[in-house]
Amino acid sequence: MEVETNKNMILDLHFRDGNIEIDVNNINKNVDRNLDGINIVSIAYEICFSRSKNILKYRNYLLSTWNNEKKRTIFDDILFPFVFSIFEYLFYVKEKDPNIREEMKKLCSDGESCEKWFYIYKNRPLDLDIILYKDLEKRLREESNFIVVQLGSCSGREVAYFAKRFPEHEFIGIELYQPFIDLSNAEYNLPNLSFELMPAVNISILMEKYKDKKFIFFSSGSMEYIQPEHIRSIFTDIKNYGAEIFLYEPIVKRAIDEIKSTYRGNFSFNHNYKYFAEYSGIKTLEMKTLRIEDNESLLNYYYYGIGN
Q1: How far is Cα 90 from Cα 45, in angstroms, rounded to an integer?
Q2: Rounded to an integer, what distance in angstroms lies between the CA atom of residue 195 and that of residue 94?
Q3: CATH 3.40.50.150 fits 119-306, yes or no
Q4: SS3 call for 195
Q5: What is the pLDDT of residues 42-85, one digit of tens each?
Q6: DSSP per position, 88-146
Q7: Digit-coded pLDDT (tens) for 190-245
Q8: So where are the chain's domains?
Q9: Residue 205 contacts by C-beta under 8 Å, 6 or more apart in sequence?
């Protein structure tokens, strides 16, 4: 049986002795969408665990549609949730090396996915009543000549908003994904704003580059995607350089008092930011959790601290 997956690939599914063998070829374009009797879970396992370069190419294509479902065919739509779940929980979560996990995440989050999210967030109005924005604005009015870095700037709308309001400070948005950097640089043209390709775990490079400057870091919904092994490193760098940090991140209620980070799904984690910050020597100035309307399981976690 052959099933169309995308314009370049056909899955050729053979049933022999109760086992499924999968080959990918680009030749036969005849499509049979009758899926009666096919074990989709078994097919998903074969796709994820295969060592065939062509099948892995299809797996990676399928994962790349995580936030771009319009690319999928009917059969892709059927396979995707199974392939994604196997990849997420049997590959990503079980991987012990955080740097390898970051590369695995890029299979789902880079490229066209970035462009989609860039425009979704760019066109979404800022809620200026959020405590993060209010406290950050208050702090920026108290002193001048800060370098303000947004960890995970995505569409750049937040860091650009503050750059427009505070020309006496310098602003930098850092991101893991090049498309966000390219789109942000094309969208915003402010003399005190720039965007750099840099994982948050490497912020010491920035602080070392501008040793004579005072730093403020802030994150709004990005630190939840930081690998647990990298959280302490980030806070340690902030402490060592005497920087300040503002965070506003979602967290599951039951995880608030947990010391270790817990996986929440879709590459996000629950982190106890106050615990990790204070463990690294950062002084907590404010911490609170705030209810999310119409969501009984999640809270927003607000944290403000300063390195000594």
Answers
A1: 10
A2: 32
A3: yes
A4: strand
A5: 889 999 999 999 999 999 999 999 988 888 998 899 899 999 99
A6: IIIIITT---HHHHHHHHHHHHSTHHHHHHHHHHHTSPP-TTSHHHHHHHHHHHH-S-E
A7: 999 999 999 999 999 999 999 899 999 999 999 999 999 999 999 999 999 999 99
A8: 2-94, 119-306
A9: 198
